[in-house]
Amino acid sequence: MRTLDGVRVLDLTRLLPGDYCTMILGDIGAEVIKVEEPSLGDYIRWVPPLMKGQSVSHLMLNRNKKSMKLNLKCEKGKEVFYKLVERSDVVIECFRPGVVKRLGIDYEAVSKVNQRIVYCSMSGYGQDGPYRDLPGHDVNYIGYGGILSITGPSGGAPVIPGVQIADLTTGLMTVTAILAALLARERMGRGQYIDVSFLDVVASLIVLPAAFYVGDGRPPKRGEWLLNGGFPCYSVYEAKDGKYITIGCLEEEFWANLCRALNVTDFIKYQYTTSDAKLKEMFQTIKKIFKTRTLKEWIKFLSEEDVPCGPVYDMDEVFKDPQILHRKMVVEVEYPGVGRIKQLGTPMKFSETPCEIRSPPPSFGEHTEEILKWLGYAEAEILGMQQEGVM
């Protein structure tokens, strides 16, 4: 048994946010059907790097899914889509606001066919408001939402994070919203519409910086706030071998452990000092000390001293880390035509309904004919639709 056994999701999205969302839904057992426009389909299929002609990003993100080509701009294509809607539980789209309305597949129209449908729209700025029609990408959303303003060194320019915060967290938030709506459906007997905005999600993430701002009226600055490197107890230091170590000693006991381990016990009482001179002295002293041993030596020593610390890994080190491997966050999967490749595992560990990689990512339109036959179309009808450009 799988957690979402019996739940069918129609995925109209393209690229990272929607693919990440439906990957998670697929991992926990939903049947995900990617409804792809016939010319290019999901753009992630063509994103480099490629292995034997297939995008590795596609191989990572589109496991446990089916794919069908369908032209939603023609009436026959919409007919097929509505037959799918009748037998589905969730529709997810990530077009600009107004597009699904023009296509005639918006929530108002879809809910008339299936009142139990949970329909989710993901968009940059939401379905209403002054920014509704603006284009955008991750960097724009984290700029508007305040994350960029507090990311980077003190006195320096904002630094773009190494992962797509808005895209990925919106994917996670969308999963949460869909699961909540499915639960509510069991109580109400009907589905509902969900409007998820990338900017809204980013704004919801700045809860701690916002609390500091609301509390004292001053916005946190890059590299000068408690949680972005402004204090020696929560920072990143260079080791003797040029590698970096993270220190996360927010609690007094951990800070005291670090100071005793570094033989700078006079710093213990200055953990959160407001003196710029003292902070400068502490940073300079601790930086010099960390350059006296290698990263590996520091991790072993400080871990034994009960100090929250860790390495700043390169990607190859992440894929070899014993804890990551033990937790099965890196697995190997066989892909037709490609062979065995490494794949990221799922972070959710269920005791009764474990997640699993049941099937490799589908080739473009791989399940089109299978799905059409399941919907009741005869061979002659399918051939006719192919000739008409419906798929």
Helix percent band: 25-40%
In the sheet with the most strands, the strands line up as: 5-2-1-6-7-8
Q: If you average the pLDDT, what whole number results? A: 95
* Strand and helix order: EHEEEHEHEHHEHHEHHEEHHHEHHEEHH
Alpha plus pi helix count: 16
Structural class: alpha/beta
What does this protein structure show overall?
This protein has 391 residues and is of the alpha/beta class. The chain folds into 2 domains: 8-204 and 328-388, Rossmann fold, CATH 3.40.50; 234-318, formyl-coa transferase, domain 3, CATH 3.30.1540.10. Helices cover 39% and strands 15% of the residues. It is built from 16 helices and 13 strands. β3 and β4 form a beta hairpin. α6 packs across α8 (198-205) and α7 (165-188) crosses α8 (198-205). The longest helix is centred in the middle third of the chain and has 24 residues, at 165-188. The mean pLDDT is 95.
